[in-house]
Design goal:
Blueprint: E1 7-11, H1 15-25, E2 30-34, H2 37-47, E3 51-54, H3 63-72, E4 79-83, E5 96-101, H4 107-116, H5 119-129
Parallel strand pairs: 1-2, 1-3, 3-4, 4-5
Helix pairs in contact: 2-3
């Protein structure tokens, strides 16, 4: 048996985007999905994903509130923000691995996901977490 697949949590209220991301990443990740920040926080606690992709504009709990709550909870999972409208307000200080503009061309998102899981970034996150 090989190593277990890393887990990726996709948080977006749009089913089409979640499906597109699942198709793109399911060969390399165990992909979990949430339709808003409330579901996302629950899955962060229960699944402990290796990485999160989050939209900023969602009902119930938007991405900004989700990011603030992650910080309050002390969670250090790398987060990639994928949004169609880039934020004007400053983002909460979280381990943000990148901000990419939503596009059916997933090259920027693929690059951000790959970079966030690089061995060097893992070492830096371990140091920050005091492990």
């Amino acid at each position: 048996m090989g190593q277990p697949m890393p887990t990726l949590l996709v948080i977006d209220d749009n089913l089409a985007w979640r499906s597109l991301y699942r198709l793109e990443f399911e060969r390399r990740f165990e992909v979990w999905e949430a339709c808003d920040g409330v579901e996302g926080l629950s899955l962060v606690e229960s699944v402990a994903p290796d990485q999160v992709i989050v939209d900023l504009h969602m009902p119930r709990m938007d991405g900004f509130t989700f990011l603030r709550q992650l910080r309050l909870n002390g969670c250090r999972v790398p987060v990639i923000i994928s949004t169609s409208v880039l934020p004007e307000e400053p983002l909460p200080p979280v381990p943000c691995a990148g901000i990419v503009e939503k596009s059916p061309n997933l090259a920027a998102l693929r690059s951000a996901v790959q970079a966030a899981l690089s061995p060097e970034n893992r070492r830096l996150r371990s140091k920050l977490a005091g492990e």
